Amino acid sequence: MVSWWELGLVRRHTGDELSPAVLRCPYCSAQGRFDRVFRAENNISDLKHHHYVDVCKCQACGNHCFVLWSEEKREVNYQVYPQDMHRHEVIEDWPEAVTSDYCAALKALMNDEFDTVRVMSRRIVDKVALQYGITCKGLDLVLDEMRQKGLITLALADWGKVLIVEEPAVIAGKPLPIEEQAHEALRFTRMLLDQTLTIPNVISLYKQRDMGKIV
Ligand SMILES: [Zn+2]
């Protein structure tokens, strides 16, 4: 990295100026609900184009974040800081194979490799299913089996069937943009991991503590 301004070269949209509509709040995940409260422009002459820092306030939760961005040839590069890490925290008790795929999906999202995110999400579903002895083929069948075993809720199963399919997901009659699909697939995957791995582990630890096995 030559300059810390490169931290703003992560995501892209077309346009002459940063669009608040594309920004997702790192605290509450609301999208496109920002008021800009401050802007600073970097005009160091040896940089090819100007870079900006916007401080934005979320209308939904009231928190502030800042956005590093720049524009060149009607393409805006940007990144929101702080990054939305709490939603993506890796849990130590997950199996190694699941953790490595989840980290790969996060990395793919950071690199705008949206198809890879969906592929990794699909792989994670299969690996979690294997943990519980579910070996049937086809996402619908796998999710139904997970639901029947009480591992996931009906709502999560239905959501997964819509999201992680071979063709672009269609919500309310409109195809989701591929970037949104990738975000949603990762959100689904995270909820699946929480329902199938994290929560059972937490309950198990709680019971052991309750029985005086651990302090
Ligand atoms: Zn917010």
Which cofactor or ligand species appear?
zinc ion
Question: Which segments are poorly predicted (pLDDT under 50) over 5 or more consecutive residues?
Answer: none
Structural class, judged by helices and strands?
Answer: alpha+beta
Q: How many β strands by DSSP?
A: 7
Biggest beta-sheet profile: 5 strands, antiparallel
Using the CA coordinates, give the radius of gyration. 20 Å
Overall tally of structural domains? 2
Shape, please? elongated
H/E element sequence:
EEEEEHHHHEEH
Oligomer: single chain
Strand content: 15-25%
Note down, in words, how this protein is organized.
This protein is of the alpha+beta class and 215 residues long. It folds into two domains: 4-84; 87-210. The protein has helices at residues 96-110, 114-131, 139-148, 154-163, 178-210; strands at 11-14, 34-42, 51-58, 64-72, 75-81, 170-171, 174-175. The chain has a five-stranded antiparallel β-sheet, with no helix packed on it. The protein has a two-stranded antiparallel ribbon with strand order 6-7. The mean pLDDT is 84. It binds zinc ion. Zinc ion (ZN) is lined by residues 25, 27-28, 30, 58, 60-61, 63. The site of zinc ion has 8 residues, from loops.
